[in-house]
Batch of 3 targets.
Target 1
Amino acid sequence: MVSKRIIQLGLAAGLLMLLQGCGFHLRGDVALPATISPLRIDGIGRHHGLYTELSLMLRGNGIQVAGEGDAARSRLRISDYKSRRRTLSVDGSGNVIEYELHEGATFELRDDQGNERVAAQPLSLTRSYNNNGSQALGKQDEENTIRREMQRDLVQRILSRLQAQL
């Protein structure tokens, strides 16, 4: 009985070491320098889904997000934000059976003097999903969910690039 418990603990410890060795880390865990805080997000409105995701992730990583009119040490500018949907395929009756969703933006980081800390970089994500015309309401919810996930992925990529370049 004791030997079985030791084997289980050994396997669990081995698995944890493998995960650590391959560079695995929890999503959202990004080490950004405290010198960029407080940070203002420019280019998108405060009620925009991307703004909400960015501010949540930044705060979760110890970065204070400055509001309009507040002093900020850094400015994260989001520009060229695009959110599109296009038809990928249709059936014989002309009904759409597959859509492609696109989310993209360009970001850059500047200090309070306007000096470039991270150069402008475009990011783009694309996902597709099947459309069943008989479940229109459910498909709209599915599209909204996919878009929120894509915005989270976009934010994660922005933060990862900031971490790598600061």
Note: The mean pLDDT is 87.
Target 2
Amino acid sequence: MSQDWTRDAFLARFGGVFEHSAWVAEDAWDRRSAADCRTAPTLHAVMVAAMRDAARERQLALINAHPDLAGRLAMAGRLTPESTKEQQSAGLAFLTDEEKARFTELNDAYKARFGFPFIMAVKGRSKDEILEAFVRRLKHGADEEFATALDEIEKIALFRLRDLLPE
């Protein structure tokens, strides 16, 4: 970062990097090293450490803060600007009725199995790759899928930080 940040300015800029979970940026700031980060990868490391150090209940709340892919919020235009851009980049805003029905079916099956939404860093992915991942990950165990969801959240956060900071 090329400037000295106040806490409020830092939170205003980076509070939305983790979907509806400003607490990650707050915890990262409280580590004091976040204010010294100058690049996306270095700030990402501090923010991910804050996420990983959180209690499982807080991590679950973070996972649950994410919208379904090509889900009802997307269809209603109620995603965050970041999520909208990411889902559009994967072609999820332009699905046929049949594809929408398949995504709804998979979203519902996934949530029924794991109790939280399917999360995937979709930037640079095709809808077919996403559908394949859905099917593959539905076979995972609960702990494996919880860990996978956090891994995908890390990827999403790095994409978002790269849009906000230099490398």
Note: The chain has two domains: 7-60, 67-164.
Target 3
Amino acid sequence: MLLAQLVVFFILAWVTKQFIWPPIVKALDERAQKVADGLAAAERGKHDLELATRRSVEALREGKEKSAELLTQTEKRAAQMIEEAKAQAKIEADRVIAGARAEIEQESLRARENLRDQVAALAVAGAEKILRREIDVKVHAELLAAIKQDL
């Protein structure tokens, strides 16, 4: 009986070694390979995540720098536009002032001419009134006589 058990044991060991053990070893090797591939993929994923994190941080930094640069350029352009507007306003104000001064000068000349005309008219009217009152033949004759003697 021991011999029969020994034969059955060896047959079972041989059948196990020939037919059962290779698929189990193959399955274990495949499983080990999958685990190794998974670990390698995890390492690659970790590395890719680090790279992506670095890239995103760099992109964020570049975006902030660009936005700051754009903001600075916008502020400079706004200041430049304000200065240009001030210069245009100054030129326009100077032009308006020059026009107003010229108009004031013209009005002043017109007022002087008008005043001269009025003064001349008043002088003529006053002289006319004086001449009408003072026509005295005796006084005129004496003046004419004095002029004759001077000549």
Note: The chain has one domain: 35-150.
